[in-house]
Amino acid sequence: MSAVLETGPRAMLRPLAVAAAALLFVAAASWAVWEWLPEAGWRTVSVALAIAAAAGLGYLAGRRNAAVLHRAILRALEGHLEPIAVPGPPADGSVIADYNVLARRLRSLIEEMESSQLAIIGERNRIDAILRGLPCVMLAVDSDVRVTSSNDRAEALFGLPVGDLRGMNLFDLLKLDREGRELLGTAFLHDQQVSHRDVVLGVAGERRHFTLSVTFFRPSPDATIPSAVVMLQDVTDHRRLQQLAHQSEKFVALGQLAGGIAHELNTPLGTILGYAGMLGSGGVSEAKRTQYAQAIQSEAQRCARIIDNLLAYARRERCAPESCNVGDVIREVVGTIRDCHSRRYHVPIEVDLRDAHVLGGPGQLDIVLGNLIMNAVQAASDAADPRVLVEARSEEASAIVTVTDNGPGIPAEVQGRVFDPFFSTKEPDQGTGLGLAISQSIVMGIGGTLHCDAAYRGGARFILKLPLAGAAARRGDCAVA
Length: 481
Hints:
The chain is built from 13 helices and 12 strands. The chain is an alpha+beta fold. It has 3 domains: 102 residues; 101 residues, Beta-Lactamase, CATH 3.30.450; 232 residues, Histidine kinase-like ATPase, C-terminal domain (Heat Shock Protein 90, 2-Layer Sandwich), CATH 3.30.565.10. The strands form 3 sheets. The protein has a 5-stranded antiparallel beta sheet, with helices on both faces. Helix 1 runs antiparallel to helix 2, helix 8 packs antiparallel against helix 9 and helix 11 runs antiparallel to helix 12. The N terminus is likely disordered.
């Protein structure tokens, strides 16, 4: 805005000259009247002349104010809202005073409008920067499904500058497959929101996978106003990584299955080799030979049972519930370990059993209990007074089996990893890290739990909780064979 409009001597020169001429004329007329008229006539004429002079001066002042106001209005039309400054304060209610009030208010209003306009421009630039920097393709389209704006990712994907993208038909731009075109067409036909739907686009001669999202605005009769925003996120590389990860998981599962079979067969095969060695050593009575042969046959059957259960676990076969007496399984496992490993480890195994009919087949629980008891025997073997205790009791609708040893225990920092596949606290040649992982999977499939008692001190204690067969049948539960 310019400074206040001034009315200086130069602007007042012409009105003052006219006023001076008028005063000279009045003075001359007054002298003539003084000379020729008597005193009474002179007074009458003097009053008339004074009135005429006052009227003339008022007229000249009005002309001056009108000229100043006219120039101020012309400058206002050019954008210069300036209050008018005249010698002395303008009278209240005069046109100049009213104009000055109007000019000040309009100037304040225009300044507020300019400030708001700058704020809007700044916000628009910020939003535009955000949209252009989005990690996905963004296309704004009007009611004629023509592109009105786009971001950098869109220009990079389609290889077109902003000017070429603007005005293109969305369906011509997006080379969608049939399903994608039907999805997009239905969305625009019914103003139906679309969120993260998978579509396939042809990009640079390559079929790539995208997720499509469409958001609609309030309909507008003006076709140039955006009516929807289309977002496309390229997920081709992510899908490839998912496929690779899925394939890798298959190989890992295959490796775990192979390792698990090898781990579980190691114990009964060792027993078979032990009995076979004793049979071949000679000097064995016929009764012992029969006993050893029966033990070899029993362990061979156990091998077959282990393989069947591991394969069934790997296949995740349909529900086929089994049940057994957990006390009988514990006695069989403890007897086998005593007969085959007592000479090597010299660890007594104590049992305190209460028979309970639980959910789970004997082949499944044989694997679980064999792992737990054998681990306890190995852990307690270095103790001064080695001891392993196996207890079983019923508690509400479950059977609780605890296996406790007085070995070195499990460090607190690794207790959370003992059930991880291939994790072991044993020496590399003594364990594969699959026994507890497989055992926990079997127990969870039955509907039970298996965990390490972190509060136990003086060794290690594992707690196995199995659902009772009768309670499970009443609930309608079933186990995976």
